[in-house]
Amino acid sequence: MSRVEQRAKLDLERIVFIGRTFEEYVDMFSLSMKELEGKSILDCPAGACSFTAVGHKLGLDITACDIAYDHPVEQLESKGLQDIEHAMKGMEKVKNNYIWRYFDSIETLKKHRVHALEHCTSHMRESSKHYIPVTLPVLPFQDQEFDILLSAHFLFMYADRLDHQFHIQTLNELLRVTKEEVRIFPLVDLEGKRYPYLEQLMVDLMDKGYVVEEVNVPYEFMTNANAMLKIKINA
């Protein structure tokens, strides 16, 4: 194995390739088909989510981007299945950190995660142009290239690993490539604790002229993760 191959293997091992279903996205972001039809949508970072794959079958214009997309789809599919198995084995130990209404059991959760992965990787094979490799806080897109941007389970969740400056830089980049609206879910970290700088961040955004709203959503699996941040660029 060459050094390049070793580096790629190590990089992939550091990525957790697990995703949510289209239906979860609809609930996490309080979406409706009416809001999405005719819009250019970016899912960032998208991971193994099926939002892009299922959305395209419904006639939506969605682009997915993620650091993982630098790797071949076969490797991502294999890594995703391994990550799901690992996550489900560990879920029993932290089961009390979750609310078992949206999913009634670990087995049901596993089926949703596998379905998301299968839809995602199948669509990647069919239409790889919709899956763009990126490394935040930089995006390879034009200013206001997308009408709506959705960002799930990244910003705010990893406050212990990604510092506040990274959050600000990434958020500014998400806003740069978006024309109408950015939605971010959830607003808590992996322990269910609210992002400590959220209120100041909202004030700073409003001072810049954005319309900012914290919105409760019909989705709560992880405890306290039941709200999104909605940032309107053109009020």
Main attributes?
235 residues, alpha/beta, globular, single chain, 7-stranded mixed sheet, Rossmann fold
Count of β-strands: 7
Q: Give, in spatial order, the strands making up the sheet with the most strands.
A: 3-2-1-4-5-7-6
Give the helices and strands as they follow along the chain.
Answer: HHHEHEHHEEHEHEE
Helix content: 25-40%
Task: Return the domain count.
Answer: 1
* CATH fold category name: Rossmann fold
Strand content: 15-25%
What's the CATH class label? Alpha Beta
Query: Tally the helices: what do you get?
Result: 8
Q: Radius of gyration in whole Å, from Cα?
A: 17 Å
- CATH homologous superfamily name? Vaccinia Virus protein VP39
- Can you give the mean pLDDT? 93
Largest sheet: 7 strands, mixed
Low-confidence stretches: 1-10
Please give the CATH architecture.
Answer: 3-Layer(aba) Sandwich
- Helix and strand content put the structural class at alpha/beta
Q: Distance between termini?
A: 54 Å
Overall 3D form: globular
In brief:
Helices cover 40% and strands 17% of the residues. The chain has helices spanning 3-14, 22-28, 33-36, 51-57, 73-91, 106-126, 164-176, 198-207, and strands spanning 40-43, 61-66, 131-133, 146-152, 178-185, 211-216, 227-232. A seven-stranded mixed β-sheet has the order 3-2-1-4-5-7-6, sandwiched between helices.
Description:
The protein starts with a helix and ends with a strand. The protein has one domain: Rossmann fold (3-Layer(aba) Sandwich). Helix content is 40%, strand content 17%. Helix 7 links the parallel strand 4 and strand 5. Strands 3-2-1-4-5-7-6 form a 7-stranded mixed sheet, sandwiched between helices. It is globular. It contains 8 helices and 7 strands; from the N terminus they run αααβαβααββαβαββ.
